[in-house]
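Need the bound structure for iron/sulfur cluster, inputs here:
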Amino acid sequence: MSFRDKQLTEKEKAGILRAAEAVKQINGGKRQRVFVRTFGCQQNEADSEKILGMAVNMGYVPTEDADIADLIVINTCAVREHAEKKALSVIGQYKHCKRRKPELVIAVCGCMVSQLHRTDELKNKYPYVDFTFGTSDIHLFPQLLEERLKGGKRSFTLPPDEPAVAENIPIHRLSSYRAWVSIMYGCNNFCSYCIVPYVRGRERSRCPEEVIKEVRGLVEAGYKEITLLGQNVNSYGRDCSFDCNFSELLRRLDKIDGEWILRFMTSHPKDASFELIDVIAGSKHIAHQFHLPAQSGSDPVLKKMNRVYTREKYMEIMNYIKAKMPDCVITTDIIVGFPGETDEDFEKTLDLLSSVRYDMVFSFIYSPRKGTPAASMEQVPEEVKGVRMKKLLDLQTEIASELSAPYGGRRLRVLCCGRSQTDEGMLEGRTEGNKTVLFEGDASLEGRFVDVEVTQAGAFVLRGKLI
Ligand code: SF4
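Answer from helper R.:
Posting the output first, comments after.
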């Protein structure tokens, strides 16, 4: 399927605009409020900003209060069974809102509803849900809303076989200085524990000109931090004929002048190249921060996970990053207790942590995900998983403390991100390496780069004073 075939047709684009106008007519200019609840990852947060953008474009006003909303949209996650159960219980709570306000419209979207069994469940057991749409059908939101407001039947769309890449969807960003920019959707990797390829479809990249236009517009509008999003950004452009891989896209973006930082997530080790690391090392704006999910330090486990790289290949990349960018902040994801993981396998994972010495490890206890191959493999007992997780966290806290200690007394350039959610009266900032820094100061500094001298270097949080 060529790149062109993946774009919305002019007819589809016209349909979206026509529906948006129709919804405005139906609401007759009345002040209607929209409430969007988001579960899951940064990609879902970015999708919710598009849903809000389309709603605002149809005359709705965002509200944080579901009780006064005229339109409620729940953007769901399916990464683990638990995430789905949580979303379903929250959807259940909105039953009362509908009883109080029968004209209220409730829509459910995201990864959970890209699965037939969940869509059927919503259809049969949640009669107050008006319509659903999957991750690759966000652009259908205006039409589905129009049909429902016109008294149409409830509708439950399932993902198309060949999803399109919809450009020029209005975006209502929740921050005025940090922005998400999706560069591609879907994933072709089929790691044996992961549901994403089944709910987000095959990889489809946006064309580089559209990405560059969006990032340039954000920088010119004063945005300070831009994060490129994709399930596997390293394979950007591979599904299309345009001659621009991820390294080349970063090179072109780095040419945009201004005081701003560029981040990206998520990388896959099998597609991480020396070329990519050279581009980051030699850049002006790309953060010296690398998140490279290892998941395990054992080759037999990596094989069962279908990760398609070996520990040796992974270490090659790690050593190259450290050689090229000694100041780089390196983080990873680790799954503990993957089916078949032996004590020996786990020791190899601990050894990987000691070899790489990550600044931060996002660790997860494996839980079977219905619909993935790993769910039917022989499971590790829960108590064993718990013991291993404790060992891993203890080791990582030790390493992170040692790596943080040299930050003491250093002066750091920090992006002020406003009031801390954890420490009353403190402001929270992010270093170029995305480390958290807490400091005292006036809230008006939010969205600006400031200089902070580190006075306390904790394992996971630095504290300092404003200079
Ligand atoms: S790379 Fe693997 S873990 Fe990541 S989204 Fe794709 S299938 Fe899931």
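Comments: The chain has three domains: 4-156, 178-405, 408-466. The two ends are 55 Å apart (CA to CA).
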